[in-house]
Amino acid sequence: MTTKGLAPKFTDKPKIKQAGKNVVFECTLIADPIGQISWSKEGTPIASGGRFKAAVQSSGTNHTLTLEISQINTQDGGDYAVVAKNAFGESSANIKLNLGTKAQPQKAPKFPDKPQIRKDKDTNEVVLSCLLEGKPKPELTFYLADKVITEKPGKRTFVVTPLSEDTYTVEIRIASPTPEDGGNYRINAKNGAGESNASITLNLQAKEKTGDNPPTFEPSSIKKDGRAVVIECRCTANPAPTFTWLKGSLEVKPRIGKYEKKSFKDGAVYVEVLRILVSPNPNHLAINTD
Prior knowledge:
By secondary structure, this protein is mainly beta. The chain contains no helices and 26 strands. Helices cover 0% and strands 61% of the residues. Residues 8-98, 109-203, 215-290 form the Ig-like domain.
């Protein structure tokens, strides 16, 4: 008959907490049974008692291991280890305690301001940016639609810029953005003191194509102006049309003393004017556009 159980496994990085003049090491362990727990400093076993107090809090197969050192001094600095061992295996976690006059304080991650979206004029990238506070420097995980994303060379990069010892700007930079790059982004920040999330929605809608319209003529006008005949044609079109005047099958081109052409736009209407200085029979003229 096989006995069921779980080999020891430390699930998170050890935490160091300060309470007055005391320091507490805290580790999270999964094991069944919990087995034997031993603490050491630089290879020397630590017995619970005096200034050192080891404790275990268990809930099923989850266990929280702590070692409290009271009245810490510079001699307590160094490399510590905790080992968990049962019939199914063994696991260890290491903790480095750096001491000057006191343990370094920690600050849980926090996004104090609302994330911003801007366009970098120099690189033409879309930039999702937010301010982050935390000490020590938080570890970051990036998500799009709740799926972990990573950097893509030439497409998506993550930039973290320190502003002070516990403040940073965090950016997701997207090159040549397309509608597929849109969606709900999330930045998870985590350190030994806690974690926090910043969410931002990027809307990248595909531009609707403007429909093309073929040239459509309004009724043309023919009038006399002294010795000249003036023909005016008006039409709407998208994109802008070009005009070609024909007499019979021959193209009519501007010629000093004979033909004058003028084009302009009147609102959404394109206007083309042909001024004939020597009056022909206007019925011989036809208009073609392309």
